[in-house]
Amino acid sequence: MFAKITIMKKLLFILLLASCSKIEIPKGEYQPYEEIYIRANSDIVSKAYDIVFFNTLIRDGQMNFGLGKEGTRLVIPAEYVISLDKEYESYFADAKDVVIRADRGYQYPYDTIAYIPNRVMKEFATRIKYFIEQDEYTRLYASLHNDLYAIPITGKGYRDLQKKGEN
């Protein structure tokens, strides 16, 4: 009797696994004016002025743009990673050395208050490319909304990370 119950449990488990593999995530609809969220603590969000990064695929040098703010998230347009024609955009997705700066009025230099690790940006770009190629918009938007986060740091702290190659 015990052997029959064990066999039945195993069969039930195999059937359950087989049925789970058939579940499909809906691909979703393309939303042309979606946003990218960068999770951050409230102190970073309240002080954030702009985001600065390097992308040598676009041009050799530093680029920056302003940030929107929403609760504990910084907000940038998704068109920096997916065009209105549903094509991958490397402008922000392939960026490295991404830092968030505080507004100091007209005083220079700006203060670095946070960064997004290069590893996180690289993983983000890989997922975004894949989701766009596969027309997987549900997963694309989940990635745009959840994958990026800012880590608090000072300018000196970030320069030290760069020297060690740990950013």
Descriptive notes:
This protein has one domain (28-164). Helix content is 39%, strand content 25%. The protein has helices at residues 2-20, 42-47, 90-93, 118-133, 137-146, 155-164; strands spanning 35-39, 48-54, 62-66, 68-70, 73-77, 96-102, 111-116, 148-149, 151-152. Helix 4 packs antiparallel against helix 5 (137-146). The protein starts with a helix and ends with a helix.
Number of strands: 9
**Number of alpha- plus pi-helical segments:** 6
Largest sheet, spatial ordering of strands: 3-2-6-7-9
Average residue-wise pLDDT: 81
What are its keywords?
39% helix, 9 strands, 6 helices, alpha+beta, 5-stranded antiparallel beta sheet, 4-stranded mixed beta sheet, 167 residues
Strands, helices and their partners?
Blueprint: H1 2-20, E1 35-39, H2 42-47, E2 48-54, E3 62-66, E4 68-70, E5 73-77, H3 90-93, E6 96-102, E7 111-116, H4 118-133, H5 137-146, E8 148-149, E9 151-152, H6 155-164
Helix pairs in contact: 4-5
